[in-house]
Design goal:
About 80% of the residues lie in helices and about 0% in strands. With about 500 residues, the protein is mostly helical.
């Protein structure tokens, strides 16, 4: 069936509306806190929805249904860990973040250890977030390419991706550059409501098109093992088991939401620590519902295409849900759902650009130019945001040809998250860890995860666990050894 002009018009009107809504928040920003933290005036429920959007993105919407189509509900084991990780962050990290006058997560590292480690952690975040965000932008291009197949039929695959990425990037910059973090959070709220409503419409559309009663549908899905959630096997090389999900998911979320500026920036926009904790825990409820919804859609898509085989076999599972939207959903609804998916991508991209920009300005530029005025810093913040948008554009093109985009993105981020989390835990749990010792531990943890990623079959769900434990243990031991060495040298000098 494909999208018609009405669908394309719906997409255009929706994207224009979102952009204009973001423009509503254009105002003169007088400080970095006002620009990057929305003046800490955002209510907790809005931050909760914004966190859910940042965690969801296009990767979730197109990849998770594909995962259920290929396998089962095993991904929910990881989501259980996501919930546990939020509790850990509420207890260990949020009180430290909201106690001081912080704009980025890495200022906490400087307060505990020093400038060198702050530079190292902030630099690692920039590299990791940019690489992962390039994959997310690629996911955006997949949706746009499918949605606009007719309009872009005269272009090859590379050209279609370039046009799609450029379109959404420019629209994101239009509403986010001037409105600051306030525009990002409130557009997140609107977009979450729209894409969840659209996804539920998609769910009922699949049920209607299957043309079978629920007993038949569930029987086919259950016979294929689509509703299976738990796998208690002890095989270390299986990606989604109960153990890798709960343990790995806990460590992964503690790292992402506790050390990644993309999420910490939203928490820092809260009025106080209690509001931040409510926002983080509330986002966990939303995330559990979302992942269950997207997995359920994937299982229904399996049943639908089992009964109605596609004329051309799917080449990658990431394309299954977008193709269904374009070819099977009623006109108008298909356009709205595609627009909502694109809008969620814009929301995620806007938040990522602000986290990259805030870290660049606060953790690097402000230290190089300590006497720069607030207006000057805001000017460079906007310029840096445009610069990061260009970098993500290039990285997205380079990421073409990978595997399932969700797992590729999680693998890239997990490599760096292990060492980042290990350093933060050294800072908030121990008092004896030193800056030099923590740096040694961080480098060792990063090297370990790089080795696991490139040269072993160990799944990404274990990267953060192993990397953070290695960073913490080696960092603590190195601090003790370096302190004893320094003490011995001082004692030798005194005796001489």
């Amino acid at each position: 069936m494909g999208l018609n002009l009405f669908d394309v018009a719906v997409i255009g009107i929706y994207l224009a509306g979102v952009t204009l809504f973001g423009q509503h928040f254009r105002k003169r920003q007088n400080s970095l806190k006002g620009y990057f933290l929305a003046g800490r005036t955002i209510p907790w429920w809005a931050i909760a929805l914004s966190i859910a959007v940042a965690e969801t993105s296009t990767l979730t919407i197109i990849s998770v249904p594909g995962m259920a189509y290929d396998s089962n509900f095993g991904f929910l084991q990881l989501v259980i860990g996501y919930l546990v990780g939020r509790v850990v962050i509420c207890v260990l990290l949020i009180p430290h973040y909201l106690r001081g006058d912080l704009v980025t997560a890495y200022q906490l590292i400087e307060r505990r250890f020093g400038n060198k480690l702050r530079t190292l952690t902030a630099g690692l975040f920039l590299i990791m977030r940019a690489a992962a965000e390039g994959v997310r932008v690629l996911a955006m291009a997949i949706v746009v390419g499918i949605a606009l197949t007719g309009l872009l039929s005269g272009y090859n695959a590379l050209a279609r991706d370039v046009i799609a990425i450029a379109l959404v990037t420019v629209l994101t910059l239009l509403y986010s550059l001037k409105g600051g973090m306030e525009a990002v959070i409130w557009t997140d709220v609107v977009q979450l409501c729209i894409y969840l409503a659209g996804t539920i419409v998609g769910l009922f559309t699949i049920l209607h098109l299957v043309q079978c009663d629920w007993h038949t549908v569930s029987g086919i899905a259950m016979a294929a093992g689509k509703f299976r959630v738990f796998d208690f096997s002890l095989d270390f090389h299986v990606t989604y088991t109960f153990w890798s999900g709960v343990i790995g998911g806990t460590f992964l979320t503690t790292a992402t939401h506790g050390t990644d500026q993309l999420f910490v920036q939203r928490l820092l926009s809260s009025k106080n620590a209690r509001q931040a904790q409510k926002a983080l825990l509330g986002s966990g409820v939303i995330i559990l519902f979302q992942f269950a919804l997207f997995l359920f859609i994937g299982s229904l898509l399996y049943v639908f295409y089992k009964l109605n085989p596609p004329q051309v076999a799917f080449t990658r599972s990431d394309t299954i849900f977008p193709i269904f939207i374009v070819t099977r959903m009623p006109h108008g609804f298909s356009g709205l759902l595609i627009a909502a998916i694109l809008a969620s991508a814009m929301a995620q991209l806007g938040g990522a650009l602000y986290s990259l920009s805030s870290t660049t300005i606060v953790d690097f530029y402000s230290r190089i130019k300590p006497h720069a005025t607030e207006q000057r810093k805001i000017f460079w913040s906007r310029a840096v945001t445009v610069g990061w948008a260009a970098i993500l554009f290039v990285l997205a093109i380079a990421a073409r040809g990978g595997g399932r985009v969700l797992e590729v993105g999680l693998s890239i981020t997990s490599v760096a998250y292990g060492s980042l989390l290990g350093v933060f835990l050294l800072g908030v749990i121990t008092h004896r860890a030193s800056e030099k010792g923590a740096m040694v531990g961080m480098i060792c943890g990063l090297m370990l995860n790089l080795y696991l990623w490139r040269f072993t079959r160990i799944p990404f769900t274990w990267y953060v666990v192993l990397g953070s434990i290695a960073t913490f243990a080696i960092g603590y031991c190195a601090s003790f050894f370096l302190r004893r060495t320094a003490t011995s040298e001082i004692a030798t000098l005194i005796n001489e």
